[in-house]
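Please decode residue identities from the backbone states below.
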């Protein structure tokens, strides 16, 4: 486990600790960066298999540089049933992490900007069994709204008993644009 801080001004450190307590910004097992005025705080912690057991707010914060106020868990049972049927019918999308993510959120349409990243801890090659999980983050942005700038989904995909892929965990939050950028599962201010 690695942990590193850059804290040039003690006064700002106190403010960051307040933000940490109020918004759970810097949990112990995420990678996050926060910039306030001239201060940049970076926490780097290697978080592999524990990601699936982290509280939602901490798991959602992995891989983002934006403040996370809250995140919502999404039920995956109905989608996993659909995914299992697609696997049995040998549908091409049922073995593609990005396509599974896009099918889960309802497609790529209606978004001005979309960033998709896939992280697989350890060594893995296509065509071989998935030994841990694949984390798929889908960030939609560029919305023409005065309070909601976009949204973000994070999916953890694992291999099932019959070789099929399934979503083990899914989280969601809106990207609020006021009073500053932050992720929130609730209404944006």
């Amino acid at each position: 486990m690695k942990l590193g801080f850059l804290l040039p001004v003690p006064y700002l450190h106190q403010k960051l600790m307040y933000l940490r307590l109020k918004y759970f910004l810097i949990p112990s097992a995420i990678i996050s960066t926060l910039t306030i005025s001239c201060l940049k705080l970076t926490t780097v912690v290697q978080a592999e298999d524990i990601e699936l057991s982290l509280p939602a707010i901490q798991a959602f914060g992995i891989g983002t540089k934006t403040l996370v106020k809250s995140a919502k868990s999404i039920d995956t049972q109905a989608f996993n049933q659909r995914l299992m049927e697609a696997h049995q019918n040998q549908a091409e999308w049922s073995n593609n992490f990005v396509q599974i993510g896009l099918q889960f959120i309802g497609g790529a349409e209606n978004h001005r900007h979309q960033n998709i990243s896939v992280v697989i801890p350890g060594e893995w090659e296509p065509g071989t069994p998935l030994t841990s999980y694949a984390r798929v983050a889908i960030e939609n942005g560029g919305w023409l709204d005065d309070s909601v700038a976009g949204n973000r989904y994070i999916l953890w995909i694992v291999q099932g008993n019959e070789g099929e892929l399934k979503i083990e965990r899914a989280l969601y939050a809106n990207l609020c644009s006021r009073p500053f950028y932050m992720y929130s599962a609730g209404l944006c201010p």
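Observation: The chain has two domains: 10-68, 72-184.
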